[in-house]
Amino acid sequence: MKVLIVEDDIDIRELISFFMEKEGYEVLEAGDGMTGLKLAKTYHPHIIILDLMLPNLDGKSLAQMIKKSEEKYGNPKIIMLTAKTDIEDVLSGLEVGADDYMKKPFDPRELVLRVKKLLNRETKISTKKYMFKNITIDTDKHLILEDQNEIPMSKKEYDLLLLLIKNKGLVLTRDKILDKVWQSNYYTGDRTVDMYISKIRDKVKSISKDIKTIKGVGYKLEEKIL
């Protein structure tokens, strides 16, 4: 699961990152609000640890923008960090959509527990969906929708497109794709990956140009950042 840390104090950011990575989370970091917003749009983190006072775009405004267009940012949970002790600041953060808050200074172990609690609750109550532009993958129903129209796909095509969307913006080598999708102990061959990428491009034409070939390496599902 992805955790986005938006904190301008590099020492605090690195401390949180250390504890999150120790728990096995994939960590993204931003030192200002605008960068945090761009990362949220590109990578769809499951949870955002968000400082209230940030350069370029403050935490309250960032949370408000994300909660107004949740699907655009992957419906993340938000934990607000604040050095302010005024209850009004805490309440204003919760009012714009923060799911929890912690006052600085805090024990990073408690923050880890709060992250786990929010993510566990989300897993229990929600249907897992992955989205990219007009494409939605509903993993509970094993469906791929393009503008709400179902696209029939084989299991390997489904698994490959899901892998690309889960890792949008990241380069996936052919070896990694073979390992994740085919999980084979025998040599399947690079051409197998290329053939299935071609099939997906043909079936999902609206995002075919977003599936970029990285020559000599693999593929990347590319999304333009704000």
UniProtKB/TrEMBL annotation:
The keyword DNA damage does not apply. It holds the Pfam family Trans_reg_C. Keywords: DNA-binding, Phosphoprotein, Two-component regulatory system. The modification 4-aspartylphosphate is found at D51. Residues 127-223 form the OmpR/PhoB-type domain. SMART domains: REC, Trans_reg_C. Residues 127-223 bind DNA. InterPro entries: CheY-like_superfamily, OmpR/PhoB-type_DNA-bd, Sig_transdc_resp-reg_receiver, WalR-like, WH-like_DNA-bd_sf. Residues 2-119 form the Response regulatory domain. It comes from the Bacteria. PROSITE patterns: OMPR_PHOB, RESPONSE_REGULATORY. PANTHER family: PHOSPHATE REGULON TRANSCRIPTIONAL REGULATORY PROTEIN PHOB (PTHR48111:SF40), REGULATOR OF RPOS (PTHR48111). This is Response regulator. It comes from Psychrilyobacter piezotolerans.
